[in-house]
Write a structure and sequence with these properties.
The protein has 512 residues and is mostly helical. The protein is 75% helix and 0% strand. The protein folds into three domains: 1-199, Growth Hormone, Chain: A (Up-down Bundle), CATH 1.20.1250; 202-258; 264-512, MFS general substrate transporter like domains (Growth Hormone, Chain: A, Up-down Bundle), CATH 1.20.1250. Helix 8 (119-130) crosses helix 20 (395-433) and helix 12 (203-222) runs antiparallel to helix 13 (232-254). The chain starts with 8 loop residues before the first helix and ends in a 17-residue tail after the last helix.
Length: 512
């Protein structure tokens, strides 16, 4: 591969803005619809459970298309693929906003998910391959800011739009962003296309990938609603997913032109980096989903206020990113990740202690703010470790495979967290109800106090039942926070198996 001179000055700055905005748009879109589901479903005459397919359809299509980015980039070129993906994403977003039935919306969400797949991996590889080697840490730090801020903006923006405007604007806002990204990226990356190869299509691999990952993602999204393995549908989806994925792995390891390059796992740093970022993201994303639900169900927050209580996590990373980027080349990335994981553990333990029925806004916002230290030292060092020592021409494939496992881990984290939360709540509810008997003086005293306030016996029973449910939800959430903190402390050990030197993208632009 011929070394190409890195971009400089204004061209470099504009390219960074375009690639970061493309990432922001894609990550925003995977979270913005979550809080608006009741509004969308109601408007289109569907139930809430049917409405969740608006999220599922995007997630499934996206999970399938991310891993084939590397193969597509080799075939048609990274710049061309990035530009076409952005154009089609903006068009699909417009079509989603114009949908007048649930079926039409889900159809365009599938298209949106498919074309969104290459955006994050390609923005990573284009960034690294066009930056001067000495400034790659700054590039990754600035890029990772968008991955952090977008999931926080999503629920706030989604809640605000669905409360005040037509839900279609959730999707329409992608159109001007997409146009801006295409214009800037075209001007800055013109004439910087990567080498292409006409390789045969790995049809068997593609079919197995669509089948395996599609079934796995639907199983994860629908499991809780269908009571997991008590449902025939979930059992069938699981069996198909497991069989297809096993065959996919065997096929891809033996095929001459695999659609997913599993040989990347021969690189020690790629394996450790991918494993660490995926497991950590699984816990982080699980908490992003759990926290707003907990605040809305137990503490009576609106969607917008629940979003605002989660938002402080984005403040410190924005401040820290340029500083970390500037000094990163002098630091051992493993120390940054160690600090990040310790701060995650502290914040999860902190939450487990402070979440009480009479908790105020600050008690939920402060741990989020301090967790910004953890998030700020998370993405950039782990991506650097993951991509260290790889040749530039393998960057798109490595980015897509790493992002695929991280995205899938986010889905698994959401499923495990929400299922554990409701299951543990049921268990705690049953234990707490055992104490509400005519023979328990504390229970009888509560009844007397409530009836003294003018409640009937039935109203008092209803109030006590609600308090027990809330208490059960808080206790089960705190148990999840405890568990997550423990896993972060175990992950500390894993990251020290990575080997320096850590320079993302090998050693500049030359071949390896």
């Amino acid at each position: 591969m011929v070394a190409r001179k890195p971009l400089e000055g204004a061209q470099l700055a504009w390219m960074t803005v375009a690639l970061a905005m493309a990432t922001f748009m894609q990550v925003l879109d995977s979270t913005i619809a979550n809080v608006a589901i009741p509004t969308i479903a109601g408007n289109l005459g569907a139930s809430n459970s049917q409405g969740t397919w608006v999220i599922t359809s995007f997630g499934v299509a996206n999970a399938i298309s991310i891993p084939i980015t590397g193969w597509l980039a080799k075939r048609i070129g990274e710049v061309k693929l990035f530009l076409w993906s952005t154009v089609l994403f903006a068009l699909a977003s417009w079509a989603c906003g114009m949908s007048n039935s649930l079926e039409m919306l889900i159809f365009f969400r599938v298209i949106q998910g498919v074309v969104a797949g290459p955006l994050i991996p390609l923005s990573q590889s284009l960034l690294l391959n066009n930056y001067p080697p000495a400034k790659r840490s700054i590039a990754l730090a600035l890029w990772s800011m968008t991955v952090i801020v977008a999931p926080i903006f999503g629920p706030i923006l989604g809640g605000y739009i669905s409360d005040n405007y037509h839900w279609g604007w959730i999707f329409f806002i992608n159109v001007p962003i997409g146009i801006g990204v295409v214009l800037i990226a075209y001007n800055t990356l013109k004439g910087r296309e990567t080498e292409t190869q006409i390789r045969p299509i790995d049809t068997v691999g593609l079919v197995l990938l669509v089948l395996g990952i599609g079934c796995l993602q639907v199983m994860l999204d629908r499991g809780k609603e269908l009571d997991w393995f008590n449902s025939t549908e979930i059992v069938v989806l699981t069996v198909v997913a497991v069989v297809a994925i096993i065959f996919l792995i065997i096929w891809e390891l033996t095929d001459d032109h695999p659609i997913v390059d599993l040989s990347l796992f021969k690189s020690r740093n790629f394996t450790i980096g991918t494993l660490s970022i995926s497991l950590a993201y699984m816990l982080y994303f699980g908490s992003i989903v759990l926290l707003p639900q907990l605040l809305q169900e137990v503490f009576g927050y609106t969607a917008t206020w629940a979003g605002l209580a989660s938002a402080p996590v984005g403040i410190l990373p924005v401040v820290m990113a340029p500083i970390i980027g500037r000094f990163a080349h002098r630091l051992d990335m493993r120390w940054l990740v160690t600090f990040s994981f310790i701060m995650y553990a502290i914040c999860f333990y902190w939450r487990a202690y402070t979440f009480e029925p009479d908790m105020d806004f600050g008690a939920s916002a402060w741990p989020q703010f301090i967790q910004g230290f953890a998030v700020g030292c998370f993405f950039m060092p782990l991506i650097t470790i993951t991509l260290s020592g790889l040749a530039p021409e393998r960057m798109a494939a490595a980015s897509s495979l790493s992002n695929f496992t991280r995205t899938l881990a986010g889905s698994i984290g959401t499923s495990i967290t929400t299922t554990m939360w409701t299951d543990r709540e049921s268990m705690h509810h049953a234990h707490l109800v055992e104490n509400v008997t005519p023979y328990n003086p504390a229970a009888q005293q509560t009844y007397s106090q409530l009836e003294g306030l003018g409640m009937s016996h039935q109203q008092a029973s209803g109030w006590i039942a609600q308090q027990i449910t809330n208490q059960g939800l808080i206790i089960s959430a705190n148990e999840i926070f405890w568990g997550a903190a423990g896993v972060f402390l175990i992950l500390l050990i894993l990251i020290w198996f990575a080997r320096p030197p850590f320079t993302a993208g090998g050693g500049g632009g030359g071949a390896h």
